[in-house]
Specification:
The protein is α/β, with parallel strands linked by helices. The chain is globular. The chain contains 3 helices and 12 strands; from the N terminus they run αββββββββααββββ. The strands form 3 sheets. Strands 3, 6, 10, 11 and 12 form a 5-stranded mixed sheet that branches. Strands 5-4-7-8-9 form a 5-stranded mixed sheet. A two-stranded antiparallel ribbon has the order 1-2. The chain has a domain of about 150 residues: Sandwich (Protocatechuate 3,4-Dioxygenase, subunit A), CATH 2.60.130.10.
Length: about 220
């Protein structure tokens, strides 16, 4: 088969060599800039921290798995059941493999499983759970939509650990909850982005409500 000779670039009439180079550079510049923009790193902001509060377990309960609706042999049927799931990523967007997510919250009547809250919690509600993320950094819990108590709006406490390191302690809030605007901790969040990062919708699903909570940490 005959070889097709390469096609030589056609000089632009009336332009010197140096000027032709300048014209070609200007023509190529937009595509170079577009590629550079596509490769620019995405700026991510760490999930805001919030206080642990007074009701973190004094000791980790025997049943501390991902399903807070079952405590030992008991099944919890009060409140609105929900699935809380999400991911744990670093600020570059990479999954934090091996991270452990912990959550704790009050029962449907506003009681924590903690001696400082009078020991009035429903014994069928686990109240505290742990889940290790999978290879994609995902976690999942079964629990209830949080409820209000005292001066606090509905919320769930969340902590992220990696080995012996504590990467994050924060609280999750319910989007659209009228009591948020009166809650001193929700109002203490610095700006709209910080509030949006901790405030998520609880939407209907096949097995109750569902909420997605992404956690960005410095790992």
């Amino acid at each position: 088969m005959a070889r097709i000779p390469p096609i030589a670039a056609t000089p632009l009439p009336g332009l010197s060599l140096s000027r032709r180079k300048a014209v070609f550079a200007l023509i190529a510049a937009p595509s170079i800039l577009t590629h550079a923009r596509a490769q620019a790193p995405v700026s991510r902001r760490a999930t805001p921290t919030q206080t642990e509060g007074p009701f973190y377990p004094v000791s980790i309960p025997r049943d501390a798995d991902f399903d807070l609706l079952r405590n030992g042999g008991l099944t919890y049927t009060r409140g609105q059941a929900c699935t809380l799931e999400g991911s744990v990523s670093d600020l570059a967007g990479r999954p934090v493999r091996g991270a452990m997510v912990e959550i704790w919250q009050c029962d449907h009547a506003g009681h924590y499983d903690h001696p400082g809250d009078g020991g009035n919690t429903d014994k069928s509600f686990q109240g505290f759970g742990r889940a290790t993320v999978d290879a994609q950094g995902r976690y999942r819990f079964r629990t209830i939509r949080p409820v209000a108590y005292g001066s606090r709006t509905p919320h769930i406490h969340v902590k992220v650990r990696l080995g012996a390191r504590e990467l994050l302690t924060t609280q999750l809030y319910v989007a659209g909850e009228p009591l948020n605007a009166r809650d001193f901790l929700w109002r203490s969040l610095s700006d709209g982005d910080a509030r949006a990062a901790l405030t998520v919708p609880f939407v209907p699903s096949a097995d109750g409500l569902r909420a997605e909570f992404a956690l960005l940490v410095v790992a």
